[in-house]
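G.,

No rush on this.
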Amino acid sequence: MKKVVVIGGGTGNFVVLSGLKHHPVDLSAIVSMADDGGSTGILRDELGVLPPGDVRQCLVALSDSSRLMRSLMNYRFETGGLGGHSFGNLLLSALEKVTGSFEKAVEEAGRILSIKGKVIPITTHEVRLKMILKNGKVLEGEGQIYKSEEIEKGYSSIFLEPQPVVNKRAIDEIMNADVVIFGPGGLHTSLIPSLLVEGVSKALRETQAKKVFVLNLMNRRGQTTGFKVSDHLREIVKFTGKDIFDNIIVNNSLPPKELIERYAEEGELVTNDLERDARVIPAPLLHNGLKELQKGDILKRNLIRHDPQKLADVIMGIVHAS
């Protein structure tokens, strides 16, 4: 059975994992630990726990338990003292307190949810993502970076503070993989933070695995305004040290025109300017149905999203050829 490792955070990891779990592969998710927004940020600050949000999404994606249990993990309280918190985040934080280890908490939650695969935090140390813009402004945390509309004017540095020690299990997974999937996900908030953990970029350069970059569907206005495929790739290469990718998966289908116009103020579709690059695999990857916007969703453009199974089918073509 081929070993597939997925690196990133948030919704991107969820989409890839929820599609691949239906295929005969040995799956591992390596999860960014830079999340500090919403419920996750409050739990980090008030309880001193590691961020559970992105890990929860991966656990739910890989779960073979009942639909009720998956819904329970994603259930978000709307009122009272728990308003804004998801049950899954609370469960992971409580398990961390009970076991004394975030890794053990993730393992126990994985057993509860009967997950197919492994979920591995990229570091087990508390870190904060920071960015210094060229105008000197400092953005503190993933939340501020995510909401910023000034990044397109340029930034001088992006880093994790303090510099975390990498989880050795994450490096082992990368080195032993047959295929590594990187993305999709927020460029500055999910993808680059994973590369800022010392040792990760080196492992990606040295592993014999095929490396696959899955492009976002849309740009984020104020951050990646006007970015084409080559721009996203160039930004990642700054942190990997070289162009490591064997394949680049790019969506080539269009959502309804009215949907594009409706969300024009938030961002535009990423266009492919690498048609002559043999590594690029264009495919229709859009989900046909519309997802209802949930309370707490920051971006309406979440309605324009990857179809997990369509994406998994393209990835599996690469896996079978590896």
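When you get to it, here's the other one too:
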Amino acid sequence: MEAVLTSFNTFLNDHAAAEKKASGMAMSMALHFRDRERLVTEMIDLSIEEMTHFRECVRLLHERGLKLLPDEKDEYVNELRSQVRTTREEGFLDRLLVGGIIEARGVERFGMLAKALPKGDLKSFYEAITRSEERHNGLFLELAREYFADEEIQERLQELLEFEAELVERLPIRPYLH
């Protein structure tokens, strides 16, 4: 948390980029799996919400006299996504679970940040973002349960979480979301 608090502007730029990418990911899922009506509706709504968060991050950057920087590769997300299997159904499950894992880490990190910030608009913003990420995590898991058996979900989720634990151990500490 110290890295984020001492380099908050860097973190805020990365946060904005993450929200923009999350919006795009949701639209990609809606278009790729358009035969699943509920998923399409939920992903469109998620995309709009994530883009709203992006807009709020950009507003905060502008209030600080900063400009949006070019995106940087997110090694955490890219490595997790490398675990998505290639067949349509397995890949669909993996994309839902990876989405849920990423949102769960957002809950943790935004929640820690919200607790560390002094009272004010920024603290309120990150408290709201934390609640939003909790809903998103729940949504990905709920959608997985709609399309897959619990045993299959739990087995694959465990594999992905084990991979994620190893990944987090080897990533450097930086003032980034992931």
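The chain has one domain: 2-170. The chain has a mean pLDDT of 96.

Enjoy the weekend,
O.
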